[in-house]
Amino acid sequence: MATARGLAVLQAIVNDYVATREPVGSAGIVARHDFSVSAATIRNDMAALEEEQLIAAPHPSAGRVPTEKGYRVFVDNLTRLRGISAPQRRAIERFLRPGEDDLDQLIEKTVRLLAQLTNQLALVRYPTFSHSRIRRVDIVDLEDERLLVVLITSRGMIAQHPVALPAGQTLSTAREAIIRVRRGLGDELVGTELEGFEGHADAVLAHVAPGDRDLAERLLAGVRLCVQGSRSERLLIAGTGNLLRTEADFDHTLVPVLEAIEEQVTLIRLLGEMSHDGSAVSVRIGRENDDRVLEETAVVSGGYGPGDREVGRLGVLGPTRMDYRANIAAVHAVAGYLSKVLR
């Protein structure tokens, strides 16, 4: 177990290596940090850290760099969460204002802001809406004898789907039926939870006039697709260029990582696992990520949602050589502000 000074030396090595990407030697530590001991003493501390596999030499006669285990010990011993700067706080407050955007705009702003604050690849998992309610159902005329079903949820999610009129009907001849079915949809569906949609859909059909049934079934099918889209797992990503600029920090090609980012399934599963870690901000480093594709990356993520209920998750992905303290602070702050906006 590293001593208190040994942990301080590890912290110095991590901070210097993150800043310079150069292996760190004892002489550099003495010159840049106030340990009030000799370089020989620091070398002894580094030897103990190396024996515990917290640091390693990338090649003979070089300084030392942190290992995955070393980064983990560093993160676990961050006793004080660095606050974000005043300009960062103003940027968050300017970007994330309650009531100004629908959910899609809000999530898009959030992911772009997080990428800018951290200079990492940022990702936001859309809220899961198992408890979201239908706030409004609209039916809008389109060209070519079609209608557009528009669903708005209590969380601001907007989904839409086109629907063709029954054969032989036009917007003019079906006008009265459209009005009746629209009224029935609103009366039966507005205020209900998405999870209970099917039961209320049956009630709509039970009360519809026989001559309106074909139209009602088509419109309900459109609403059903909107509901399914609102409940699906979605991930928004920004800052891919930030990740590409760190390619030198990876021993292997970035192509598999970029493919996993594009496919999203691996990241969605990882964020789901991290939501069970039991901390406000969770960190996975290197091979702590179960998927081999991500074993050279680090992921910092935090949950967001109204009150104490987590409905989504956001975070950053980058090389294991990242500024953990700053990224943890940024993820924590942005998640907190997003939670306030969603209340």
Outline of the structure:
The chain has 343 residues and is α+β, with helices and mostly antiparallel strands. The chain contains 13 helices and ten strands.
What does this entry look like structurally?
- This protein has 13 helices and ten strands.
- It has helices at 4-20, 26-32, 39-51, 68-76, 86-95, 103-118, 175-189, 197-207, 213-231, 240-244, 255-263, 265-274, 324-342; strands at 55-56, 65-66, 121-125, 134-142, 146-153, 158-164, 235-238, 281-285, 297-304, 312-319.
- A five-stranded antiparallel sheet has the order 7-3-10-9-8, sandwiched between helices. It has a three-stranded antiparallel sheet with strand order 4-5-6, with helices on one face. It has a two-stranded antiparallel ribbon with strand order 1-2.
- Strand 4 and strand 5 (146-153) form a beta hairpin.
- It is elongated and about 90 Å long.
- Keywords: Repressor, Stress response, Transcription, Transcription regulation.
- Belongs to the HrcA family.
- InterPro entries: GAF-like_dom_sf, HrcA, HrcA_C, WH-like_DNA-bd_sf, WH_DNA-bd_sf, WHTH_transcript_rep_HrcA_IDD.
Index terms:
343 residues, alpha+beta, Arc Repressor Mutant, subunit A, Beta-Lactamase, Enolase-like, domain 1, 5-stranded antiparallel sheet, 3-stranded antiparallel sheet, 13 helices, 10 strands, elongated, DNA binding, HrcA_C, stress response
- Which runs of at least 5 residues are low in confidence (pLDDT < 50)? none
Q: pLDDT average, as an integer?
A: 89
Proportion of helical residues: 40-55%
Instruction: State the CATH topology of the largest domain.
Output: Beta-Lactamase
Roughly what fraction of the amino acids lie in strands? Answer: 15-25%
Q: Going across the biggest sheet, name each strand in turn.
A: 7-3-10-9-8
Number of domains: 3
Helix and strand pattern: HHHEEHHHEEEEHHHEHHHEEEH
Oligomeric state of the chains in view: single chain
Q: DSSP helix count?
A: 13
CA(first)-CA(last) distance: 44 Å
Calculate Rg over CA atoms: 27 Å
CATH homologous superfamily placement of the largest domain: GAF domain
Could you give the count of β-strands?
Answer: 10
Quick one: CATH class of the largest domain? Alpha Beta
